[in-house]
Amino acid sequence: MESKLTIVDVRTVEEFRGGHVAGSINIPLQEVIARVEEIKALPQPIIFCCASGNRSGQATHYFRSLGLECENGGSWLDVNYQLNNQ
Predict the structure, then answer these.
(1) CB of 15 within 8 A of CB of 54?
(2) pLDDT tens digits, residue range 53-76?
(3) Which of these, 80, 61, 83, lies nearest to 70 by C-alpha position?
(4) Residue 68: which of 35, 48, 40, 49 has the closest Cα?
(5) Torsions phi, psi of 47, nearest 5?
(6) CA gap 15, 83 in Å, rounded
(7) CATH, residue 17
(8) 61 in a domain, yes or no?
(9) What does the chain look like in DSSP terms, one character per residue?
(10) Residue 3's pLDDT band (boundaries 50, 70, 90)?
(11) How far apart are CA 3 and CA 59, in angstroms?
């Protein structure tokens, strides 16, 4: 993963409060469409994560269709591990 990227956690606020990647932004999946312009303005690439990779996969598919440079990081625990073990 590159240094200039944004990690967007698409889990619920409650899940995010229970633990998340340091520096990540919480935008629950049900809010991403309403917050498209905000997300498009974030530094790319954007790494989406959630609990298992399902919700982040949905967000990744949607934003790729809009032309954003993004990827599905899968579980936030996996993203956290990758960032801390580069």
Answers:
(1) no
(2) 999 999 999 999 999 999 999 999
(3) 61
(4) 40
(5) -105, 115
(6) 20
(7) 3.40.250.10
(8) yes
(9) --SS-EEEE-S-HHHHHT---TT-EE--GGGTTTTHHHHHTS-SSEEEEESSSHHHHHHHHHHHHTT--EEEEEEHHHHHHHHHT-
(10) low
(11) 21
Whether the model clears a pTM of 0.90, i.e. scores above it, the answer is yes
Q: Tens of pLDDT along 23-57?
A: 999 999 999 999 999 999 999 999 999 999 999 99
Strand partners, 6: 46
User: How many folded domains does the chain comprise?
Assistant: 1
Residue with tokens 């917050």: 35
Sign of CA dihedral 78, 57, 72, 45: negative
Is residue 1 in some structural domain? no
Structure tokens at 59: 């967000």
Which of the four pLDDT bands, split at 50, 70 and 90, describes residue 4?
confident
